[in-house]
Amino acid sequence: MANPSSRVAEAEVLRGPFDPGGQPSIKRKDHLHLSLFAWNVRSGLSASKAVLADPKRFRDFWEWPSSRELLQAAERAGFDSHLQYGMWSGYGGASGWNDASLDFATGAAISAAVTERLGLYTTVHVGYEFHPVLIAKITSATDYVSGGRLGVNLVAAQNPWDYAQFGFKDVPASDVRYDIADEFTTLLKYLWTADGAINFEGDYFQAFGAEVNPQPAARPRPVLMNAAGSDTGLDFATKHCDALFITSADSSTEGYARRAEKLHSMAARHGREVRICAMCYVVMDETDAKAAETVKWLTEEIDRGALENWLIRSGHVLNSEATRLPDEKIGDEREAPVEDPYLGVGEELFTDLGLGMGAYKLFGSYETVADRLAGLYAAGVEQVALCFFDPHKGVQQVGEHLLPLLRKRGLNR
Amino acid sequence: VGYEFHPLLMAKITGTINYVSGGRLGVNIVAAHDPVDYAQFGFEQARTPAERYEIADEFTTLLKYLWTSEHPIDFEGDYFRTRGGQINPRPASKPRPLLINAAGSDLGIDYACRQCDAIFISARDRTQEAYAAMAEKIHSTAASYGRKVRICAMCYVVMEDTDEKAAETVNWLADEVDIDALKNQFWRNKPVYHQDQGEADDPYLGLGLDWFRARGLGMGGYQLFGSYETVADQLAGLHEAGVEHVALCFFDPNKGVQQMGEHVIPLLRERGLRATS
After folding, report:
1. What residues in chain A have their Cβ under 8 A from chain B's Cβ atoms?
2. Residues 191..250 of B with a Cβ closer than 8 Å to A: which?
3. What end-to-end distance do the CA atoms of chain A give, in Å?
4. Which DSSP category does A400 fall into?
5. To probe the interface with B, which of A40, A103, A162, A191 has the most B CB atoms within 10 Å?
6. B71 at interface of A, judged by CB pairs closer than 8 A
7. How many CB atoms lie within 10 A of CB B201?
8. Alpha-carbon distance A80 to A98, whole Å?
9. Which of A39, A261, A327, B193 is most buried per CB count within 10 Å?
10. Do A134 and B3 touch (CB under 8 A)?
11. ipTM reported for the complex surpasses 0.90
12. Distance (Å) of CA A189 to CA A129, A216, A274
């Protein structure tokens, strides 16, 4: 039964690139965009029992109203946005790593209500059959209420534990996951931008006489973010999304520069632009030596049990230039390397994952961190998602120490 | 509920909002019947009442498990499945957030009395007696399951200093009923609310003048039209009929909320229907 109250347009079931009304503006000269990352999840990216030394501060900062204060402090400090970590299940261990979180819808809505200017990036999973009309309605309303401050990080879900939570037996193959994500994004963009109701009859999603009202305040639409690593994923990301996360196998700025170059050229082939983003894990102090002490402590306390669960469930490392871990190291088939103190991935990777899930490390004095960020910026990174071991302190340090140094370096207009 | 939103998704969102708000969230569960909305979510037709309430029942069971279970759960239903399903934070409300329902059919009322806590009632003639009879019926159905329910009523409010002034506004609204919008609303909800044979060329859609106006002014809810005193008296009457919770919809919401604070709530206190502090 078609909606009798409106004219309905037939919406072609396209795959990307598809930018009705054009791409949102994503470029800003001489400005490194700073996002506060993972404020909504227990322990953030710290898979370390060190969080138990002061659970309220290091582990449970996501709780309400602690996270409200964190968001408001980030806005005052001069952050450009926050970015939610999308979680449906945690990894347990002695520290209960990521075992609790504010969800994508509530987190975004409450962040809109308690801030005035901060950009709001939420993270939505595609693959669990959340209907695009539902997600379009929620994201549109949040963008509208916030005056156009919302962006959406799309994840083509691959976590088998979460598929099981939503009643699915298997994780779809990578090409299927991205085909679903592609169709999802097309329909989301139609709903965000269409003038009136639409019919859409896709392979995965159908909608007849569908429309959302209010539509987003952001014109032409909210920014879409993605953190794919595989070539299939990057193909989706460069066709459909605007802000793309990159990583580099050796964490060198040269590696980041090569990666950025690759994404720009992939996007250019589709006549599109992308903003390059990097996820960073931050331990800052007055001196390099003091920061190194904290890092040493975090490393000694890595929550091996939690990290093991993460390795098993994620089935890969976030390091997108590295190939997947060998099959015998991942998934259900993985040999449990119970004897190996580093879970069979080697000490370096074990530490890299435990402290920041493979993110770029910003360890050191304020000067050191500012220099490293300047290095990333020179490599083409235009937005960093900062996750702190000690978020309340980290946000304060950014406002008081880091941002003045970034301004001096011409990275914060 | 019928659009296949997964209960884990809904448990996560509602659990988090309840947590953040310090336990202030309740959830009104609707076993969806609107064919236009089924179409928006990709379904070719609305579900039958029997199927809708079976889905709602299973949805609610799983929602309650997820809200209250300390551990991950496995659930293998006819409509919903989860393995290792868990939410954290769970609702701050103990034992769980309040569930509301506005079913009208016997099937729906049976579901509501088994699974929900606050139940909306209505009566086509909108008399106090009819509301009392409906409240009685619902209490006895709930009692047969060993449960208690709170009785609620949806009200449409036009208030003024005097009955005459309110009547003027009401007459204006009635003269201006948006017949095309009402027609759409009527046809989309017909499978549920009406057995009437609506006729497109009848000026009142075959509903008769009175019911046509009641649909146009408040979608068939109880009408609170008049002075503050009149409205307070009508609310006292509803309370006497067993209504413990009213959902007020105002033609002029900003003004209506102000009128409530300044005029109606003091009168309700005088009548002993609100705590005085």
Report:
1. 1-5, 63-64, 88-90, 99-103, 105-107, 110, 128-131, 133-134, 161, 164-167, 205-211
2. none
3. 53
4. I
5. A103
6. no
7. 6
8. 25
9. A39
10. yes
11. yes
12. 17, 11, 17
Q: Which two tokens stand for residue A199?
A: 């019919």
Q: By CA distance, what is A201's nearest residue in B?
A: B42
- Over residues A5-33, the pLDDT tens digits come to 558 999 999 999 999 999 999 999 999 99
Contact A398, A363 (CB under 8 A): no
Compute the distance between CA of residue A349 and CA of residue A286 in angstroms, rounded to an integer. 27
Give, in order, the Cα–Cα distances in Å from B75 to each of B72, B80, B86, B209.
10, 8, 11, 50
Nearest-by-Cβ selection for B13 from A2, A103, A207: A103
Q: For A303-318, how does the pLDDT look when each residue is reduced to its tens digit (9 = 90+)?
A: 999 999 998 887 654 4
Q: Is the distance from CB of A162 to CB of A125 less than 8 angstroms? A: yes
Q: How far apart are CA A213 and CA A216, in angstroms?
A: 8
Q: What secondary structure letter does DSSP report for B261?
A: I
Distance between CA atoms of B260 and B277, rounded to whole angstroms? 16
Residue A319 has pLDDT above 70, yes or no: no
Length of chain A as a residue count: 413
CA distance A224 to A259: 19
- Judging by beta carbons within 10 Å of its beta carbon (0-12, 13-18, 19+), is residue A339 exposed, middle or buried? exposed
CA-CA-CA-CA torsion for B160, B161, B167, B169, nearest 10 degrees?
-40
The span from the CA of B52 to the CA of A18, in Å, is 37
Interchain pair A207, B40: CB under 8 A: yes
Contact across the interface for A106 and B4, Cβ inside 8 Å: no
Identity of the residue numbered B241: A
Taking the CA of residue A190 and the nearest CA in chain B, the distance in Å comes to 13
The first and second tokens of residue A215, run together, are: 């539509």
Q: Which residue has the tokens 């509920």?
A: B1
pTM: 0.95
- Mean pLDDT of the region B138-163: 98
Mean pLDDT of A365-385: 98
Given a contact cutoff of 8 angstroms between Cβ atoms, the answer to whether A193 and A215 are in contact is yes
Angle between helices A104-114 and A66-77 (to 10 degrees): 60
Asked if B8 has any chain A CB less than 8 Å from its own CB, the reply is yes
Question: Structure tokens of B70?
Answer: 């300390």
